[in-house]
Specification:
Rossmann fold, 7-stranded mixed beta sheet, globular, 12 helices, 2 domains, alpha/beta
């Protein structure tokens, strides 16, 4: 039975409300629009029942804000009641475009600032909402997920703090290491991945792409992305290769050991198109070096698919590599802030995740299984069948 059919037979946990913080306003509005449409199309026969009070609505978003004082301090405000509601709080901790002033000085909001605002909204809602859920696409401090020598465990501490504040479910995407959920073993933690959205965006951008062993190959840029590449290669039925990073562990630059070289393990890629799969692009140096080496080994087109496009050093290097023919497409999701400049690049493709998030929220609100949402294999196979048959999707 599909999730849509399950939802039509299930009762909502409580009336749905979504609090999209300023960092996530645009994505929150798209998610809201999808949910409005889902529920308008529902075939429930008892919508007049009190159990479905406010089930169909033109808007599930609530007004919330975190105004700041001149000193930089802030407070969380909810402009409408959320008592008895199933509240989903959405935050993008990587949205650096927002600013505030501290004693007249302009500050760009950091992940720490966004996390504090999240806690402020939770604090304003706690004790009143029926259930609290947090949607944090890029998991706060997820790159500091394990301890080496004398280091902090920031991500685990943040998850424990949210659980202690009364959050029932934490929903994230492509966590750097999902094992961090072991810090809150008795609380809900769901980690979703976007392979279906990647393939949909790629096949729309490259309608002539042939998906078979003779023409396509999946490459992991390092050991950490292996599980993503293995899944892609198995579902698509193509070969896989891997680069591993040789690092200089005697020095630390920018908080990490510098990469000395990338070494490739895998079959000959000459003449094949290549998809490089990873969880994020930060500065992009590592990814671009891998793309260059792949192209120098005789690959055809090179497509980069990453969940989070942070582009911390801007787009100049990506422009240079595109002009040099090392990369053909860079596909990232809209789960984190994308500067307008990115959307103007001829090589850039955004994979829209708003419908996926709307399905997740709706499934959680009805308290039904999310197994079909978690496993995109059937949807990818259906997508490939349409692509090979020339059917629009």
């Amino acid at each position: 039975m599909s999730n849509i059919e399950l939802m039509e037979k299930a009762l909502p946990v409580a009336p749905l409300k979504i609090a999209a913080l300023d960092s996530c306003k645009e994505l929150g509005q798209k998610v809201n629009n999808y949910i409005v449409q889902f529920r308008k199309d529902t075939r429930k026969e008892s919508l007049d029942s009190p159990l479905f009070c406010n089930y169909q609505s033109d808007n599930y978003l609530i007004s919330c804000r975190c105004p700041r004082f001149g000193s930089g301090e802030a407070k969380g405000l909810l402009d409408e009641t959320i008592r008895g509601k199933d509240l989903f709080v959405m935050v993008d901790v990587c949205n650096y475009s927002l600013t505030y002033t501290v004693n007249g000085h302009l500050n760009h909001m950091s992940p720490d600032d966004h996390y504090q605002d999240l806690k402020r909204i939770i604090s304003a809602a706690n004790g009143k909402a029926h259930r609290l859920n947090v949607i944090m696409p890029f998991l706060y401090e997820s790159r500091q997920h394990k301890r080496t020598k004398r280091e902090s465990l920031d991500c685990a501490l943040a998850l424990q703090e949210l659980a202690d504040m009364g959050v029932s479910n934490i929903i994230t995407f492509d966590a750097h290491d999902p094992r961090v959920q072991n810090s809150i073993p008795l609380h809900g933690f769901d980690n979703f991945n976007p392979p279906y959205q990647f393939m949909k965006a790629l096949l729309r951008a490259e309608p002539d792409l042939k998906v078979d062993k003779e023409h396509l190959m999946i490459v992991s840029p390092d050991e950490g992305a292996m599980h993503r590449a293995v899944y892609f290669s198995n579902v698509l039925g193509v070969d896989m290769g891997m680069f591993y990073k040789r690092r200089d562990y005697s020095t630390v630059i920018g908080g990490k050991n510098p990469i000395v070289a990338h070494e490739f393990l895998g079959d000959d890629i000459r003449g094949k198109n290549v998809i490089i799969v990873d969880d994020m692009i930060s500065s992009g140096e590592s990814m671009l070096d891998v793309a260059r080496q792949i192209k120098e080994r005789g690959a055809g087109r090179v497509f980069v698919c990453t969940t989070f496009g942070l582009f911390t050093d801007g787009f100049d290097k990506f422009d240079d590599y595109y002009n040099a023919g090392y990369i053909d497409r860079v596909i990232t999701t809209n789960l984190t802030y994308l500067p307008p400049e990115a959307l103007e690049k001829p090589y850039f493709v955004a994979a829209d995740m708003s419908k996926f998030i709307a399905l997740i929220i709706d499934a959680f609100n009805h308290d039904i299984t999310i197994g079909n949402v978690l496993d995109p294999t059937d949807r990818i196979h259906s997508l490939l069948e349409k692509h090979r048959a020339g059917i629009p999707f």
